[in-house]
Amino acid sequence: LGAIAEVKRRSPSAGDLRPDAEPATLAHSFEEAGAAAVSILVDERFGGTWDDLRAARATTKLPLLAKGFFFDRAALFEARANGADAALLLLRELDDGTAADLRRAAEELGLEILVEAHDDDELRRAEALGAEVIGLNARNLATFEIDRRAQLDLVARAPRDRVIVAESGVQNRVHAAAAELAGADAALVGSALMRAPDPAA
Q1: Is the dihedral angle over the CA atoms 166, 172, 173, 178 positive or is it negative?
Q2: What is the pLDDT of residues 60-100, one digit of tens each?
Q3: Distance (Å) of CA 126 to CA 16, 26, 110, 135, 185
Q4: What is the 3 state secondary structure string of the chain?
Q5: How far apart (Å, rounded) are the C-alpha atoms in residues 31 and 199?
Q6: How far apart are alpha carbons 201 and 196 in whole angstroms?
Q7: Which of 11, 17, 44, 135 is the most core-located residue (most Cβ within 10 A)?
């Protein structure tokens, strides 16, 4: 099971998590600790900026995922220009045509994409889009509620020829193990790491 370690200072649902987070230090320490990739929140609602992505890029060779709300090619270009290897596409915020356009734009820019789905319909849309990496989020972004059982059911139904990432609600080893047993290839962990006294540990 791969670990995508996330850097985020705050979240709309939980408030401040680690206001003084230093992406450069954290990204380096996550690499040393064995993370497969690092996710960097670049949206101001999460206390993030493009500067955070550049800072992380300077200290790690790991793949960097730019995590924000991307709606056009210009945003993907900015992600690439600031050091991202991949960008998040939220199907909840995109229609199929826009998602397909952004996928093509990402390919042209040399960016991988993590396509995030939350329910059966969005999982079906991610498959139809041809997404190679699909994130299945346990958090309902409308209500902020976590439903790990629904997430694990989605993971179990996801196609095995894609890379499946369990997102949100992974607070401990048991949660990660459950995601792996359901069929996840990786877990994206943010809040639990940001609240930890020693995130790398």
Answers
A1: negative
A2: 999 999 999 999 999 999 999 999 999 999 999 999 999 99
A3: 31, 31, 20, 9, 16
A4: CEEEEEECCEECCCEECCCCCCHHHHHHHHHHHCCCEEEEECCHHHCCCHHHHHHHHCCCCCCEEEECCCCCHHHHHHHHHCCCCEEEEEHHHCCHHHHHHHHHHHHHHCCEEEEEECCHHHHHHHHHHCCCEEEEECECCCCCCECHHHHHHHHHHCCCCCEEEEECCCCCHHHHHHHHHHCCCEEEECHHHHHCCCCCC
A5: 12
A6: 9
A7: 135
> What number of CA atoms fall less than 13 Å from residue 148's CA on the CB side?
15
d(CA 127, CA 159): 8
Contact present, 54 and 61 (Cβ < 8 Å): no
Structure token digits, residue 80:
């690439």
Residue with tokens 């998602």: 99
**Residue where the block lists tokens 């670049």:** 42
Residue appearing with tokens 């976590």: 146
User: Which residues are known to be catalytic?
Assistant: 6, 8, 67, 116, 137, 167-168
Q: pLDDT tens, 1-10? A: 999 999 999 9
Q: Tokens at residue 111, please? A: 């960016």
